Amino acid sequence: MDFFYWLTNQFSEAGTLEYVNWYGALKKPFFAPPTWLFGVAWGIIYPMIIIAFVWACVLLKKKKVDAVFVWVFVANIVSNLLFTAVSLAFKNNWLSLLNILVVLGTLIWIELYAWKKAKPVFWLLVPYTLWGSFATVLQLAITLMN
């Protein structure tokens, strides 16, 4: 029921309000940023991810990177986009932690590969890596506190 509700209301005011209410009720560590900061951060980071992904696809077409690089990038984007859905639909912090560990793990793999073969992609993803690392530590703390 919760997943169906999220699916049909994720972009509505009701869906947003439910997530804010659920997240707001959780115990959080002292370093948890205000909720509005997430929107600002992702508003900056998502365009950089899109540019990096397009750049990776161009490099794939030019045969300068392996297809695995792009597929891991796709897995990262999908797991990133699923984070809120998983959190709201299941309201299970352990599942959310697992999801964000997949995001961070694939992101670290992408960055290590990009450092060797696609430096512009690497630099475009540095803010995402920093924010993703912070978000993982935050999710771990929230999971342990609740």
Instruction: Choose one word for the global shape.
Output: elongated
Mean pLDDT: 89
Q: How much strand?
A: under 5%
Our count of domains comes out at: 1
* Main structural class: mainly alpha
User: Kindly, what is the distance between the CA atoms of the first and last residues, rounded to a whole number of angstroms?
Assistant: 23 Å
Say how many strands there are.
Answer: 0
**Low-confidence residue ranges:** 6-14
Q: What is the H/E string?
A: HHHHHHH
Task: Please give a structural write-up.
The chain is mainly alpha-helical and 146 residues long. The chain has one domain (2-28, 35-145). Helix content is 84%, strand content 0%. 18% of the residues are buried. Residues 6-14 have low confidence and may be disordered.
Give a brief description.
The chain has helices at residues 2-9, 13-25, 35-61, 67-90, 93-117, 119-124, 126-145. It is mainly alpha-helical.
Task: Considering the chains and any ligands shown, give keywords for the structure.
146 residues, mainly alpha, 7 helices, elongated
SSE diagram, text form:
Layout: H1 2-9, H2 13-25, H3 35-61, H4 67-90, H5 93-117, H6 119-124, H7 126-145
